[in-house]
Amino acid sequence: MTPPDQDPVFSAPTPRELDERLDAIAREPFRARFHLRGRDRATAELKGPATIRWHAYDLVAKRLAPAEPDKDGRQTPYRGHPVFVAQHATATCCRGCLARRHGIAKGRELTRAELVYVVDVICRWIERETAGGTGPARRG
């Protein structure tokens, strides 16, 4: 899968491509310890995918999309919303992680395609978590 900033005609990755990316990220020890639990899991299940997607879009647009986000590197809490947990699990928590794991350069505002990509990654991870935890990301 080509990172968003290296493909001038960025197209949305397929669910399979997202799963491959998530599986690779989940092999990192730090990322592997994140799972939806307790209140964060209940919120994801009660609100449903459409509402969680809207929350993800809103949070990413405000906290991650600007060229120089406020408190970059420390702007994403570790819990309190399923999107926050997913951001740490998927390396979409700060611009540095986006650059290292997803190839999205720092120092410029996210394009609309990049913003949608980040939301897709977050929502796919949440979908996998709430589906019962089966699959490679839950092994270990």
What would you note in describing this structure?
This protein has 140 residues and is mainly α. Helix content is 55%, strand content 0%. The chain contains 6 helices and no strands. It has helices at residues 15-26, 29-32, 38-63, 82-89, 95-102, 112-130. Helix 1 crosses helix 6 (112-130), helix 3 runs antiparallel to helix 6 and helix 4 (82-89) crosses helix 6 (112-130). Residues 4-9 and 134-140 have low confidence and may be disordered.
Task: Throw out a few tags for this protein.
140 residues, mainly alpha, 6 helices
SS strand fraction: under 5%
Largest sheet: none
Gyration radius, to the nearest Å? 14 Å
Helices, by number, come to: 6
Which quaternary structure do these chains form?
Answer: single chain
Spatial shape:
globular
Q: Helix and strand string, N-terminal first?
A: HHHHHH
Number of strands: 0
Helix content: 55-70%
